[in-house]
Amino acid sequence: MNIYIKTYGCQMNERDSEALAGMLCARGHKIVPDEDSADVMIFNTCSVRDQAERKAVGKVSFMKKYKDRKPELIIGVIGCMAERRGESLLEEIKHLDFVLGTGKLHTLPDLIESLREKRLRRADTGPCNDVLTAMGAHYRPEGGSNVLGQIAITRGCNRFCSYCIVPYVRGREISREMEDILAEARMLAADGVREILLLGQNVAAYGMNGETASPAPEYSPFADLLAEMAKIDGLYRIRYTSPYPTYFNDKLIRTIAENPKVCRNVHLPLQSGSDRILKLMNRQYTADLYREIAGKLRRAMPDITFSTDVIVGFPGETEEDFRMTRDLMNEIGFDQSFIFKYSPRPGAKSAQEPDSVPQSVKEERDQILLADLAERTAKNMAAQVGTVQEVLAEGVSRRMAERWTGRTGGNRMIHFPPPEGVRPGDLLQIRVKRAGNVTLYGEVEKD
Ligand code: SAH
Ligand code: SF4
Ligand code: F3S
């Protein structure tokens, strides 16, 4: 069958979709890039903010016109919103055939094949540990870039930040066996993958059996995994996202510093710079502890870059709380930040409090942080001009056919004229000639 997959939400969802595409192809199905030729449409959804859900529901509702034209078309909603809303989605969207939650994703190929035989409407949600081991497939389409790969190393989250729906829709945190992860990484490297992104909602808690207390200084199964990954031949770079700040103990910081394959870029979710709000969010650090962790990382690796997530308009957030967030963001000097307006999620603890910050104030705070970000990024980018960066060549630029793109270890995108014989996956030394707002421009350094 021709299968169209549309993915919303975070990288974990992207990775799930990729694994499903791999599993479906192995069964002889074909992944198609457009809706028109699809026999099956799959929407892998996100619940993290109300807007994410509304977007997906709008899109799925709009697909009715395809079903009217082609009644044998199968339409399914999977992932986080599927888990949260289950059966009720079938009642709400009459042309929907199935709903498959996050714990049951591995059953998708069997499910769609059985639906083709026998048209039944089904919703299947709830936990199932098999999903952890069953989702190791990869999808490497013809003509696609083979250089970047992703591996999920944990699923779920035990942290229960008060605003967050993820622990409810993704279930308890579980870690994969290290040997399975390494085998998957070796297979990808043998297949030409040069950079692997390790994924988990709480990735640095890998191997800690769901423990949420800060680890002892010399205990970090995640560090052990990074050290083993770094030994894989042919693999040049290792990234990971998202680590919760309190897992950066001495061992983890030292391991990263000792292994240059582990990229000098950390996505370190801050959420707020106010201790009062952090406490209400059930984040287990203070602004000072966050500063201390970022400072330790920076001392161990002076070229490190940071990115972050921040929420504006959490219930009760005052001007003063917001100012502390703004100041801390500028102090750390994030290269990239994702700023979210608070959205109450039914079921999450903070939704019991009134959503007290008016929308207009959320907008205003969002704009202020975006403007700060633009200013910081421009400054950080300009500071790169004249430096030589190691860049992993990815391929022809999507915007300019005569240029190639790649990324620096610090995760900055760079465009450059391709040297003779360059291949995706090559590591190049590139001198930065010019800085744009969000990308760099450079030339390969001749030696
Ligand atoms: N596990 C990741 C976060 C996943 S959700 C981590 O802890 O780093 C991605 C981001 O969405 C969060 O970091 C948070 O900033 C934002 N977010 C989560 N719930 C939200 C909500 N209810 N309203 C607004 N933003 C939210
Ligand atoms: Fe959500 Fe917090 Fe878990 Fe991240 S760590 S997924 S923000 S509960
Ligand atoms: Fe969204 Fe689910 Fe990711 S809720 S952010 S897609 S884990």
In short:
The protein is of the alpha/beta class and 447 residues long. It has helices spanning 11-26, 50-62, 64-69, 80-85, 87-92, 108-117, 130-134, 166-170, 178-190, 221-229, 250-258, 275-280, 287-300, 319-332, 359-382, and strands at residues 2-7, 30-31, 40-45, 74-79, 98-100, 122-124, 148-152, 154-155, 174-175, 195-199, 237-241, 265-267, 305-312, 336-341, 388-396, 404-408, 413-416, 427-435, 439-444. The model has no long low-confidence stretch (mean pLDDT 96).
Tell me about this structure.
- The chain folds into 4 domains: 123 residues, Methylthiotransferase, N-terminal domain (Rossmann fold); 119 residues, Transcription Regulator spoIIAA; 116 residues, Transcription Regulator spoIIAA, CATH 3.30.750; 57 residues, OB fold (Dihydrolipoamide Acetyltransferase, E2P).
- 35% of the residues lie in helices and 21% in strands.
- It contains 15 helices and 19 strands.
- Strand 15 and strand 16 form a beta hairpin.
- The protein is globular.
- The structure holds S-adenosyl-L-homocysteine (SAH), iron/sulfur cluster and FE3-S4 cluster.
- The site of FE3-S4 cluster (F3S) has 12 residues, from helix 1 and helix 8.
